[in-house]
Amino acid sequence: MMKNSKRVYATGRRKRSIARVWAEPGTGKVTVNGADLLTYFKRDVLKMVIEQPVDQCGLKDKLDVFATVVGGGLSGQAGALRLGISRCMVQMDEELRKTLRAGGFLTRDARIVERKKYGQPGARKRFQFSKR
């Protein structure tokens, strides 16, 4: 089980989203911006992404999570929340670091939107070429 039985805090970021996460030993309840996880994230894929680190370590019904997430879209928010939860779990029990690192849950996904360049309609797309 968890070595640290106190409430811990961690931050997770993904794309333009920032998640502030508090976790403590409990019954497996996840609250995001005051709403239940199932209410806030309606897509099953996003719920799965958020619960991955907890499932990997076998702590599904042993960790209560409270989070506030701002910025970005739902996908970025889910990724930020996953990183925040993973970091909280490591603070609670350092032995989980190896398992979470192997699953890639402690790695900050640095991919962000590429900027639009002048003289073209997007980051990579070019205006239509006319030979004549």
Can you walk through the features of this model?
This protein is of the alpha+beta class and 132 residues long. 33% of the residues lie in helices and 22% in strands. Strands 1-2-5-3-4 form a five-stranded mixed sheet. α2 packs parallel to α3. The longest helix has 19 residues. The chain is elongated and about 70 Å long. The termini are far apart. The model has no long low-confidence stretch (mean pLDDT 92).
Topology:
Elements: E1 8-14, E2 17-25, E3 30-32, E4 35-36, H1 37-40, H2 44-56, E5 63-70, H3 74-92, H4 96-103
Parallel strand pairs: 3-5
Antiparallel strand pairs: 1-2, 2-5, 3-4
Helix pairs in contact: 2-3
In short:
This protein has 132 residues and is of the alpha+beta class. Helix content is 33%, strand content 22%.
Overall mean pLDDT score?
92
Amino- and carboxy-terminal Cα gap:
72 Å
Low-confidence stretches: none
* Portion of residues within helices: 25-40%
- Estimate the strand proportion: 15-25%
**Total count of strands:** 5
Taking strands numbered 1, 2, ... along the chain, how are they ordered across the largest sheet? 1-2-5-3-4
Order of helices and strands: EEEEHHEHH
Main sheet summary: 5 strands, mixed
Helix/strand-derived category reads alpha+beta
Primary descriptors:
132 residues; five-stranded mixed beta sheet
